[in-house]
Amino acid sequence: MFTPGQIGKEKASLVMLVRNRELTDALRSMRMIEDRFNRKYRYPWTFLNDEPFTEEFINFTTGMASGKTQYGLIGIEQWSMPEHIDLQKVQANMETMVAKNVIYAGSMSYRHMCRYNSGFFYRHELLANYDYYWRVEPAVEYYCDINYDPFELMRTNDKLYGFVMAMYEYDVTIKTLWDETKSFIKSHPQYLAPDNALDFFVDGGRASRRGDTEIKGTYNLCHFWSNFEIANLNLWRSQAYSEYFAHLDKAGGFYYERWGDAPIHSLAAGLFLPKSKIHHFGDIGYRHAPYSRCPQDIDSHMTGRCLCNRAEHFDDDGYSCLPRWWKVAGMSIGAGPRYIPH
Known about the structure:
Layout: E1 12-17, H1 23-36, E2 45-49, H2 55-64, E3 69-73, H3 87-99, H4 108-119, E4 132-135, E5 141-142, H5 150-156, E6 161-163, E7 166-168, H6 177-187, H7 198-201, E8 222-224, E9 229-232, H8 233-237, H9 239-251, H10 253-256, H11 261-272, E10 278-280, E11 286-288, E12 291-293, H12 298-302, H13 322-329
Helix pairs in contact: 1-2, 4-11, 6-9
């Protein structure tokens, strides 16, 4: 799907899940993306909300965008608890987590958001004609010019999932997620990809092979931080992921615990794909509070491509899982080569 004035060659959209009251933060993120990348490509923006967008929101975001803008309403059935969920159990577990000061423990809307990002955003009719998306959050920062088309990189290099940062998840929020994932693979071993990234998720494990009846080991909590994603929508539209999400949704962990879309997307990409189809955007400088990453190569800074403090670099943080990814993927440590279009 190409829109009038679009310069980029791919069927792709920037996607933001956002509320009307987050307009200022949305505009800040848009300004960053437009200045650093999109003004040269004019890809469309897709905004999604569980309430109708206001005229003010539409007018200001349309004015900020270099490409087409479109605004979608999320159906109530996708932004509410399924009928099979035990509300009393949910409330009791939420109170326990609040007492332990778990972040977002008392938020039902946060749980709706995680479930929506895990199982529904890619089904929205506004995205039906696209192959790729770039997830953009309100109030994020981009530190570096992106002088190529990441969507084109994904297509020409046969990459299906792209990320910037990787970290550990809060154990208390996903206590049963790994057990449910293992249970799913045991019932659907055909979805386990050859040369998958199990070693990224399991300490001292081995990459399981297609046809194995189960995956073993204890989950180390590593995941790709999904507030930045550039990915192929068909990964989530696949039968493997559709059945995986249905299995997780039936288990109820989005509400009984506080499952996030980040570990779910990560486990799915890491187990259903060969690790060669996962791309680390090492040349992208990015901040989503409270973490930042700044490319370390001197060239990016001496040429003015990046403006950030190289000392504020989450890759080297003890909470980062990126060194583990470099090892699993067979990559050298550093900013990573920048893609040069053919």
